[in-house]
Amino acid sequence: MNHKRMSEILAPSVMVVAAAFLLSACQQSGGVPGNPESQVAATSGGQTGAAAGVHLVAYTPSSAYKPLSTCNLGMVNAATFGTHPVELKTGAVNTFKGWLFATNLDSPTYWLRFDGQRGDRYLQSPLKLDVERPDVTAVHADAPRVSGFAVTIPANALPPGQYHAYLAVTSGDTTYICDSGRHVDVNH
Question: What is the pTM of this model?
Answer without folding.
Answer: 0.71
